[in-house]
Each structure stands twice: as C-alpha cells, then as structure tokens.
Write a structure and sequence with these properties.
Largest sheet of chain A: 4 strands, parallel
Order of helices and strands of chain A: HHEHEEHEHEHHHEEEH
Distance between the termini of chain A: 59 Å
Largest sheet of chain B: none
Number of helices of chain B: 3
Largest interface: A-B, 18 and 19 residues
Oligomer: heterodimer
Low-confidence stretches of chain A: 1-5
Structural class of chain B: mainly alpha
Mean pLDDT of chain A: 83
C-alpha cells in the first residue's frame, strides 16, 4: 500500500530528528536537570515541592509522568483515560523513594483532598503550582456522552455545552486557588498549562486570548498585580502531551484531533513547555 | 429485609448494592492479609530467637494465595469505582441520592485502597 504523505513534511521531520540525534547528549542533559528539579522537594516548608492541580481529565497524571521522566510522549502510545481514584502517588522509575502527588480532580473528591493542599500552599510547603486546563476538553471516563446531564439529544450541541461548562469549571478552580496563592508565604510561581492543543488547534487565537486576556487571564493578572513581581511569577504554556481524538471511555468520538496538527507541532509545544520549566528553575535559583 | 437505599434511581440502587457487598468482602480480605502479616512476623521473631513453632514460609505462601485471589477481583473493583465516580461527576441525581453515592463511594474506595496496601505488604 502506498503511503500518502507529503514529501515536504517527511523531509522536515527527518531534519528535526537528525538535529535531535546529533544533539542528543545535550538534550538529555537538559531534560535530566528538568526532571530532577521537578522531583526535588518533599512538600515541607524546608524543601517545598511542586503541586499539580486541575479539574478531572485535563492531563495532570500525564504531565506529572512527563515532567518526572517516566513518560515519553513522543514514543509511548496514548493510553486510555483512567480516572485517578483518590490521591495518586507514584514512585519514579529510577528513584522509587521519591513520590509525586497528584490530587484527583473530580468534584466529589475535591473537598476531601484539595482543602489540605490549599492550606499547604499558604504554609509554604509548595514552591510552585502547575494548574492544568484544556480549554474544556476534559476527558470523559467510563460514561457515555448520552448519559451526561448536558445531553439533550444532539451530539454537536452536547459538545458545545460540555466544553463551555468545563471551561467554567477551570475558571472556578483558578478562582478557588487564588486566595491561597495570595496568602502564601515566600516565593511562589504559577504555571498555567493548557493541554490538548491537538484538539483546539484551529481555535489557537481564541484560546490564547482567553487564557491571556479573557476571564482566566484577568483573574491571573489581578493575582500578579497583588503579589508583585519579586516573589511571584506566572507563566503560560500550551501543549499537546498526547495526540488523540476526543473520545469518551466508551470509545464514542466527540471530536477528531485537528487536521494539520502533526508530530512536529507536538514536539514544538513540549519543547516550549520544557523551556518554560527551565526559566522557572532559573527564577527559583536567583533568589 | 433492610433496604439498602431509598433512592428510586436504578443505577444508584444497583451501584450502592454492589459497593456494600464488595466493601464487606474487601474488609475480609484486608483482615486476612493483616493476620497473615502478624503471624509471619511472629514466626520470624521466633526463628531469630531459635524457638520456631511454625515456618514463616507457610504464611508467605498463604499470603501469596490470598493475593492471587484478590488480584482476580481488583480490576473489576477499580472499574466499579471509576464508573460510579464518572456518573457522579457527569450525571443528574437528586440531592440525597448524590450524597449517598458519594458517601458509599468514599467508603468503598477507602477500603479498596487499604486492602491493596495490605496485599502489597508481604510478611517478612
């Protein structure tokens, strides 16, 4: 069977891989330092850790695995979404004693887990918070979209309503977090990561405007102006951790991944995310 | 007969019945695992003092057999928790049904989590 791929795209991908192979030692060294930085700290005031927060199905576990060096989004195949039940604690491949804690994002779990974490932020047990959103594309687990309370008989209308409702929830999570960030002692950074770029790619401009200047952006800007620049820093990153169609846990496709969003774009987004991580590392170091 | 739930929602009734049944089973598994652990430690302690009444390997084997039985149930129990959680997150329920499902699920997941931990701890 003849493969229908553009010669230009293949050539560009080939050049990118050649470059990566040639510079692999330097790339690996930089990645190792990022992984090590992400893992450092144990959630105490003496050695504050990093907290990952966000609504359910936004990619917290995947991002934690990526930043810890346990998952390679360029090589590992996309897994099926499995909701994290309870607070997820997993050891790292090369250092099982080090734990990364990712709290669950479902509403019915938040009260029993997030309240303590919010208090920990104020107490200075975290030096950074990664807040994960996905422009409403929160994965649906073991449920059909037809059983969702927003489904009124039309799939397209359901999707619009679902995405809008989930974006509202993302904003609610940020607004719930803000007072604790405001009250926190010591230096702190907030990294807003908007995942699933492969799904909202055609709306890139709208997405950037929303998270930079819209309701979400305005809330962050208010926080930044209150905290001041010396002890608080906010960064924004857009990325695709896994290229995948937007499907429910029952394998019902709600939206295909965006045409034109390829491996190259994904690599660029992940590279940019790591560059921001390096910038935050430097900011931490320059106290 | 004791009514397990007053909810009229068929999913809620079925889910709550399953959670009650399997939460009780999990507690039994957890208790047996903890008993194996205790006996194995006791046997090891006796071995160190030179007074050995039972070979600790007996309890390790018992624990392994118990773990194998539990491993057959674990995937389905995790699925049960996830299905109920997703329904809670995304479906419509009346206030009391939602509250009951949340409470039962929290209880079920807590017992599941502690049983998994007990199963993972092999006797010394």
């Amino acid at each position: 069977m003849e493969e229908k791929t553009s010669g230009g795209a293949l050539e560009a991908a080939g050049e990118a891989f050649d470059w990566a192979w040639k510079h692999r030692d330097a790339i690996l060294k930089r990645l190792k330092s990022i992984f090590s930085w992400f893992r450092s700290g144990d959630g105490t005031e003496k050695k504050p850790g990093i907290l990952l927060l966000g609504a359910g199905g936004t990619g917290k576990t995947t991002l934690a695995q990526l930043l810890a060096g346990n998952f390679d989004c360029l090589v590992d195949p996309p897994g099926r979404y499995e909701e994290s039940i309870g607070v997820e604690i997993f050891g790292l491949k090369d250092d099982p004693k080090v734990e990364i804690v990712v709290p669950p994002g479902q509403h019915h779990r938040r009260e029993s887990t997030w309240n303590d974490l919010h208090a920990d932020i104020v107490a200075g047990r975290f030096r950074g918070v990664i807040l994960i959103s996905s422009f409403g594309f929160h994965s649906l687990g073991e449920i059909s979209y037809k059983d969702h309370r927003l489904y009124q008989g039309n799939k397209a209308e359901f999707l619009d309503a679902y995405l809008a409702a989930q974006r509202d929830d993302e904003l609610a999570v940020l607004r719930q977090l803000t007072p604790h960030l405001q009250a926190s002692r010591g230096r702190l950074w907030l990294l807003s990561v908007v995942t699933k770029q492969d799904l909202w790619w055609p709306q890139q401009t709208q997405v950037e405007e929303y998270y930079r200047d819209g309701d979400y952006g305005a809330t962050v800007q208010q926080l930044v102006s209150t905290k001041g620049g010396r002890d608080f820093r906010h960064e924004l990153a857009y990325a695709s951790l896994i290229i995948n169609n937007f499907v429910t846990g029952r394998q019902e496709r709600l939206r295909p991944n965006a045409e034109g969003y390829d491996h190259n774009e994904q690599v660029k987004s992940v590279r940019h995310l790591f560059q921001i991580a390096e910038a935050l590392m430097s900011w931490e170091a320059n106290q | 007969m004791i009514e397990l739930t007053a909810s009229a929602d068929p999913f809620a009734r079925h889910a709550i019945a399953l959670m009650k049944e399997y939460e009780a089973k999990l507690r039994k598994y957890r208790k047996r695992a903890q008993e194996n652990m205790g006996r194995a430690k006791q046997a090891s302690g006796q071995a160190r003092t030179g007074v050995r009444l039972t070979d600790p390997v007996v309890f390790v084997r018992q624990h392994q057999a118990l773990s194998q039985q539990f491993d057959k149930l674990k995937p389905a129990m995790l699925s049960l928790a996830r299905i109920i959680s997703q329904k809670l997150e995304h479906s419509e329920f009346d206030e009391l049904t939602r509250l009951e499902l949340t409470l039962r699920l929290a209880e079920f997941e807590n017992t599941l989590r502690t049983t998994i931990q007990a199963m993972a701890t092999l006797p010394a």
